[in-house]
Amino acid sequence: MYSASQGGWMVSERRIRVLIVDDHSIVRRGIAFMLSTQPDMEVVGEAADGREAVQKVLALKPHVVLMDLSMPQGLDGIAATEEIKDQFPEVKVIVLTMYDEDVYLCRLLRNGVEGFLLKQTAGENLIQAIRQVMNGDYWFESELPKEIVDEMKQRPEPENCDEDAVILTEREREVLVFLARGYQNREVAKELNISVKTVENHKANMMRKLGVSTVREVIEYGRRNRLLDLYR
What we know:
By secondary structure, this protein is α/β, with parallel strands linked by helices.
């Protein structure tokens, strides 16, 4: 993690209005409870998908949006972030994710996000990250070196940028990992305690999202973008 000061608004001037976006209600409740203990913060609303998030930014006017990246229904976190930053550029967006998804980081940076935070460390860092972005800083937890992240933010067409990065849901990633290990549909279904039909649906969804026609191409995408590290 690193941060860089860019100057800005002092958080002591007023309470920070926060909107929480995550498709899991238990995650939203947990974050809301944690923020409720902070005298300078208030949770003004919650959203379960990207489309609802955009609508609630308009209605509730938060200062900071905490955005889950992988939401299976409606707009995903990247698309919702792009809409929010386009319509409400003054709103700060901190992306929350389960994975160190450098494949998406460039696109998020190019769209003006102020933070990229791993859910595993959110408990200890989230409150600090919120205050920091409200002071004009940014907060990124990533394996990429600081120099590369700075390049992504500043260059019109940085070399380390995949503008076509595709969001796969957590379950799609799990299926992908087992497919890459050579598991057949029935074996994947047994490992994940889902039906064979559901496995087939996940495979079809991944191919549709990536614009490819074979599972092999999906696996190659996963390898290129370090999406197969989930259970190593």
